[in-house]
Write a structure and sequence with these properties.
By secondary structure, the protein is an all-alpha fold. The chain contains five helices and no strands. The protein is globular and about 40 Å long.
């Protein structure tokens, strides 16, 4: 079982990778942005749960645990679920336009939504787990002007 700190360290590494996807010379695509957002969220949420001595083994089990403990905590479960769904859609479901099969099943709104869902989760974790931003720095992401769809 990974500790909360282990999960938060992995989340930090994932955030650094996410930042790199926005580098002007990056050749990564929007599908990777959505997927990395989800795995940032996975480790943030699992770190939070590990701090409560809860260690779900699957994404489905994580959602069940979140639903069970959520009432007094106001966990952004919908943001986690939406990110999970977008990530699954991006990785496993066919393209939106069969004339361009190299374009992933993701669009600009999906990327924007993914970043917003991740921000909701990060805000919750920082507020409730009292993460110090300097201890677990996350990059500032600027989506404007980055073309993942060209």
């Amino acid at each position: 079982m990974a500790s909360a700190d282990n999960h938060y360290r992995q989340a930090q590494l994932n955030f650094l990778h996410l930042r790199d996807l926005f580098h002007p010379n990056a050749h990564f695509r929007a599908d990777w942005v959505v997927t990395v957002c989800f795995y940032c969220a996975v480790h943030l949420i699992n770190g939070y749960l590990a701090g409560l001595q809860l260690h779900p083994k699957t994404h489905q089990e994580t959602e069940r645990v979140l639903n069970r403990i959520n009432k007094p905590r106001h966990i952004p479960i919908s943001s986690y679920a939406e990110l999970k769904n977008l990530s699954h859609q991006t990785r496993y479901i066919g393209t939106k336009d069969m004339n361009y099969p190299h374009i992933p099943n993701v669009d600009r709104q999906d990327v924007t939504d993914s970043l917003e869902y991740l921000e909701d989760i990060l805000h919750f974790i920082r507020k409730h787990y009292h993460l110090h931003p300097k201890a677990y720095p996350t990059p500032t992401i600027h989506f404007e002007g980055k073309d993942f769809f060209g």
